């Protein structure tokens, strides 16, 4: 790597820090506009940009400000632990002086929010919810990048076949600890051209997300709705659990996301999945489906704070006001989706948030307003699915404990 790469990285970082929009989309655009970089250089730039986003407040403290170049120098010296000699080719004279100054800076007495690398409001919420020690452990576990988890598509393959193939390629693949269909690769690698991916034998899916599909526990021949299907990660997992029988409706307000689901559907070999764009949760199209479903999954739009290993920019973008708006939306979607459930059927509410406001509080308010639904123990359902994981009545996955993204889920059953 050379000074030119560092200059380009600081341009990409300035865009990600200074403008609205998701970091991955901005970085994608940057690479499309800078085709001169090869795979190795792109990897380096992405790692540096994400590395800074994960430790932004710690690095800003060390750098003295948020100048992207100073943040990058601080990341190289204090997070990556590079010596000044190792950085000789990469830094210009002025940057070498910054590096020296940053290396010598004491970090004694840093505030907990800076240690956790969270905005103050978010640190306060996590601390009051989990206690200081666990909140810090959760936050720190998200300073690292996530492993690459794959889901084996049981309609086309099995876990042994996929494990054997990746291990013959020396990819260091392992079975995931909880999901019976999961495989974990230690390194992020480009999987899109892998023959098993092209053939639809595998999908990229975090183990936590796979567990949510198992928690829905759809059976062969049933009517299932995925109310917020997005690009269909959980729809595809559920369709495979149903062994391509029954009927699975994938709803979403985003035509673009459902279009992406369509692309993945072709590879999956599933024919039991029907996607439908809705205008909102109160789309009149839904009326004819009231009381028809054995299972309805609401994988609600949320703050995404459980996915900070992948999307570290979210912690700097969300505001307390966003959380208030999201909880109102989550409640409205859950309330409407509940009408689709048939007697004896189940409604599953899920988020990838860590905040009680979006999780337990939404679930409790729903139960209070809908006495015809009762809460079902998530650990018991998972045990029936051969998954040994007991996080209590609710499913609560935390990155520092389960090495998955942070997820919450509550299962409600409509009494006969
Ligand atoms: C957490 S994402 C879903 C992820 C998806 N289930 C998966 O596993 O890949 C939430 C989704 O809710 C959708 N959404 C937002 N408002 C909605 C609404 N009122 N009704 C249905 N879907 C909605 C968003 O477009 C987004 O795709």
UniProtKB/TrEMBL annotation:
Keyword RNA-binding attributed: yes
GO terms of molecular function: methyltransferase activity
Alphabetized SUPFAM superfamilies for the sequence: S-adenosyl-L-methionine-dependent methyltransferases
Swiss-Prot/TrEMBL keywords: Methyltransferase, RNA-binding, S-adenosyl-L-methionine, Transferase
EC numbers, comma separated: 2.1.1.-
Any one GO BP annotation for this protein: methylation
Name of this chain's protein: RsmB/NOP family class I SAM-dependent RNA methyltransferase
Family: Belongs to the class I-like SAM-binding methyltransferase superfamily. RsmB/NOP family.
Domain SAM-dependent MTase RsmB/NOP-type: 138-415
Residues engaged in binding S-adenosyl-L-methionine: 252, 299
Database matches in PANTHER family: NOP2 YEAST -RELATED NOL1/NOP2/FMU SUN DOMAIN-CONTAINING, RIBOSOMAL RNA SMALL SUBUNIT METHYLTRANSFERASE B-RELATED
Catalytic residues of the enzyme: 352 (nucleophile)
């Amino acid at each position: 790597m050379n000074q030119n790469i560092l200059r380009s990285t600081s341009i990409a970082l300035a865009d990600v820090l200074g403008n609205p929009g998701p970091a991955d989309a901005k970085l994608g655009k940057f690479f499309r506009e800078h085709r001169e970089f090869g795979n190795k250089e792109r990897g380096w730039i992405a790692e540096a940009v994400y590395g800074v986003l994960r430790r932004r407040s710690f690095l800003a403290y060390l750098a003295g400000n948020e100048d992207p170049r100073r943040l990058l120098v601080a990341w190289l010296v204090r997070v990556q632990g590079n010596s000044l000699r190792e950085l000789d080719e990469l830094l210009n004279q002025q940057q070498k002086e910054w590096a020296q100054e940053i290396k010598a800076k004491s970090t004694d007495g840093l505030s907990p929010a800076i240690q956790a690398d969270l905005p103050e409001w978010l640190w306060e919420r996590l601390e009051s919810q989990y206690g200081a020690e666990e909140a810090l452990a959760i936050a720190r576990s998200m300073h690292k990048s996530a492993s690459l988890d794959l889901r084996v598509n049981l309609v086309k393959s099995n876990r042994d076949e996929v494990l054997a193939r990746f291990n013959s390629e020396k990819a260091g693949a392992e079975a995931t600890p909880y999901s019976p269909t999961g495989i974990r690769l230690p390194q992020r690698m480009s999987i899109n051209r892998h023959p098993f991916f092209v053939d639809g034998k595998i999908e990229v899916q975090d183990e936590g997300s796979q567990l949510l599909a198992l928690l829905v526990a759809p059976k062969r021949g049933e009517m299932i709705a995925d109310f917020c299907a997005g690009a269909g990660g959980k729809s595809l997992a559920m369709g495979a659990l149903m062994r391509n029988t029954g009927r699975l409706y994938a709803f979403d307000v985003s035509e673009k996301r459902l279009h992406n689901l369509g692309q993945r559907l072709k590879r999956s070999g599933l024919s039991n999945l029907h996607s439908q764009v809705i205008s909102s949760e109160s789309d009149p199209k839904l009326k004819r489906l009231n009381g028809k479903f054995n299972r309805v999954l609401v994988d609600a739009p949320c703050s995404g704070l459980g996915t900070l290993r992948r999307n570290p920019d979210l912690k700097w973008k969300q505001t307390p006001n966003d959380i208030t708006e999201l909880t109102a939306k989550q409640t409205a979607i859950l309330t409407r989706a509940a009408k689709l459930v048939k007697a004896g059927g189940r409604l599953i509410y899920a988020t990838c948030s860590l905040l009680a406001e979006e999780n337990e509080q939404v679930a409790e308010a729903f139960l209070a307003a809908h006495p015809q639904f009762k809460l079902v123990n998530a650990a018991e359902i998972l045990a029936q699915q051969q998954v040994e994981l007991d996080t209590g009545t609710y499913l609560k996955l935390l990155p520092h404990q389960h090495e998955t993204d942070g997820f919450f889920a509550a299962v409600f059953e409509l009494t006969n």
